[in-house]
Design goal:
45% helix; 4 domains; extended; 15 helices; formyl-coa transferase, domain 3; alpha+beta; 323 residues; Rossmann fold
Length: 323
């Protein structure tokens, strides 16, 4: 076979990466898994809180688990190469889409003395709710109450970590500390009682005022253009940025200034502009050497290097063994 045990017996220096959806062990090890399936199984899909017609929706901007695992594979292989340079030995790497999806969720942990019992209580309640046929949205609300995501104070602070429609587009705010939230409130012109002296969180008047802040913020944000707000937030030191489409970024000044776009020649498609190396290294500079090869473009070259003759290669192609 071509498993790690067989290949490493022939070449102990081999680095072998085995990627699966759920891992080689366990009750789901036999199951295939695409990104949406792993999003569902890992809790990533539910955590996104996107509901349509009463059911949760996938994170659709990109295949999060797929691409994240691809990066994990590249990094782990590089680490194995580094190890081999020093030990002379190869190794097997196991990666899973499930592991990547879990690693991307900051809530995947448990404090034994503080959160364990609440989680176990929720699991018990969850089983009861499912057996009773309770709608998903109701169950999600229970989970949010457990995590604190739906508490009034946390939910109200989301006005400083969200998106707003401006008069000519959409802008995102990213304020996670009270210091930044105060700056944003002042810049927008919000009278947030949480930043005033004598703030009383139990006051009915205060609660009502906090509840109305989002509507006020939306109205104020829609009164100016995106560029006007960006200028205001830059002066105030508020983290903010315009919502863009990926098509806009190939010609974006910031992207181009940091050499994130490269131009390459593809053997079939011609000139291609695409993302270059994700990182820059001073000692060992990275460079996009070529576009991705066409199907079978390097088959002959590889087989020749492996010792096959031109006649052997032609026969393999005729028989449909290679392309």
């Amino acid at each position: 076979g071509i498993d790690y045990e067989a290949l490493s017996a022939i070449n102990p220096q081999i680095i072998y990466c085995d990627n699966t959806a759920f891992g080689r062990k366990g009750p789901n090890s036999h199951r295939p898994g695409y990104d949406i399936v792993v999003q569902a199984v890992s809790g990533l899909l539910a955590a996104d809180n996107k509901i349509a017609d009463g059911i949760p929706q996938q994170v659709s901007a990109t295949a999060v688990a797929d691409y994240g695992t691809g990066i994990a594979i590249a990094w782990s292989i590089c680490a194995a190469l580094f190890s081999r340079e020093r030990t002379g030995k190869g190794q097997k790497i196991d990666t899973t889409l499930l592991g990547t999806a879990l690693a991307m969720q900051g809530s995947f942990f448990e404090l034994d003395e503080y959160t364990k019992q609440a989680r176990l209580d929720f699991i018990e309640e969850l089983s009861t709710l499912r057996q009773a046929g309770i709608p998903y949205e109701t169950i999600l609300k229970q989970q949010q109450d457990l995590s604190g995501a739906s508490s009034g104070n946390i939910a109200a602070f989301r006005i400083y970590y969200t998106t707003y429609e401006t008069s000519d587009g959409v802008i995102a705010l990213g304020c996670l500390s009270n210091h930044l939230r105060k700056k944003a409130a002042d810049a927008i012109g919000l009278q947030d009682p949480r930043f005033e002296e004598g703030y009383d969180p139990e006051s009915p008047e205060t609660i009502e005022k906090i509840a109305s802040l989002q509507k006020v913020a939306k109205r104020k944000m829609s009164s100016k253009t995106t560029e006007e707000w960006l200028s205001i937030f830059d002066i105030a030191g508020v983290p903010a940025g315009p919502v863009r489409f990926v098509e806009e970024l190939l010609d974006d000044d910031q992207v181009l200034a940091n050499d994130m776009v490269v131009e390459l020649e593809h053997s079939l498609a011609g000139k291609i502009r695409m993302l270059g190396p994700m990182v820059q290294m001073s000692g060992t500079p990275l460079k996009a050497q070529s576009a991705s090869p066409a199907l079978g473009e390097h088959t002959s070259e590889i087989l020749l290097n492996l010792g096959y003759t031109s006649l052997d290669i032609d026969e393999l192609k005729r028989n449909g063994v290679t392309y």
